[in-house]
Amino acid sequence: MNLDSGRPDRIGEKMERNFSLKNINLSAYLLSTGKIKLSKVDRTNPREMSFFFDPPETASKLLEEYFLGNALVDPKTLFSKLNELRDIALGGGKYG
Description:
Blueprint: H1 10-17, E1 19-21, H2 24-32, E2 37-42, E3 50-54, H3 56-67, H4 75-89
Antiparallel strand pairs: 1-3, 2-3
């Protein structure tokens, strides 16, 4: 936050707007579209992880398409992204 103006700075705004999911399968779907990127992984809770995506507007639209049954992705890419996220979850993979 910019203390002089009382408004959030650019970095704070971007971080507040990130889109997050705890579901690894939906996260793999989002990544497999190629339209968004994984911006952060929160491993604070050892029993569940949060995956953060940017841009959030695109992530939201893609999930809407998914739940409407209109999601189309290449199966090989989907499984590849799922394996990448599993590697990240186990601590051996990198993102970004």
